[in-house]
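look at this fold:
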Amino acid sequence: MARVDRLRTRAGQIFCSCDSDGLPLDLDRLPVGAAIGRMAFAFGASVLSQVLTLSVLPLASAQLAEHSSSFPVPYLALLVGAALAGFPASILMDVFGRRAAFSLGASLGIAGGILAAYAFIDWQFFLLVIAALWLGMAQGFALFYRHAGAMAGHAGGLVFGAGVIGALLGPFIVEGLTQAIGPLAIAYVLGAAGLSNLITLALAVGLPARQIEIEAEAAPHLRPQLRHFWAATFIAALAWFAMTGLMARAPLMMVGCGLGFGMVASAMALHLAAMYVPGFVIGRWIAHSGGITVGLWGLAMIVVGGAAMSWQVSSGGFGLALSIAGFGWGTATLGAMASLHRDGRPSALWLAAHDGMLFVAAIVGAAAFGRFG
């Protein structure tokens, strides 16, 4: 019996709405082959953008702010943008597919990076806040690559591995721009953060479009058990609270110790690379002990790394402390995500609610620990 997808019958929707032999199953829901490769490299480019942004945005904010004790408004705008993008990203992903959602997010990142560079050169604090908001929205969309990796099962390691590669490229770009440009290196790094989204965009537009569903039981949405949902969300929210506070504070602490932009970028890159390393090594641990237990161990590592950072004075010390905290963040986040997905594929609303609460915690953490003074 033929089955009709209600989304195919909308006015202006240029797809066949009927069943047909030989059509592929919904490649957008269960990505395979080249689609996984594209998502992995696109995620790597988005992580590169994050490294470049997080390495210099707190410093740019400190230079442009009117008062040294002000809240880190641009950094908070980055987190607000990521939070605001969570729900529309989830809905776009569910209704129109990954190609549309990831392409929109990358476009926001391109515009945000270019505007941020101009804002710093022209000394426009308000424009920097707007640019940070757009860059945050791009990161909010990019975060859904991790859910895509979870839904793809064995391919999740490839997606996280590309994130590690993207993180490790950041310091070389920052150091090269610092040597070539000098005092305006911050502006060029922010511009490079935006332009790296061109790679994401080029890869995202090549993802498969949504295909008609021809199988009645194709990957249904399931509501996670409430106790698993709240436990996973609480653990992940604590991890994000601590991590955004550390990432807002660490560049300022390092510059205060006399370390240069290149060293700051190297430490932040190690931190972000460490965030994605657990994707390779804790799968069996989660299967054996459960996502909640693994998540709690991740929180303990964040505490150890954060405490160690408070008495560091060298680039190596900061890098080690941030790496421990980053590995803990990845462990806590993946443990929480495994618990969230343990009962099946959560709906767009559940994923958006989960990520929204994470970003609320992230904003509070940045506000609590990210003051300039």
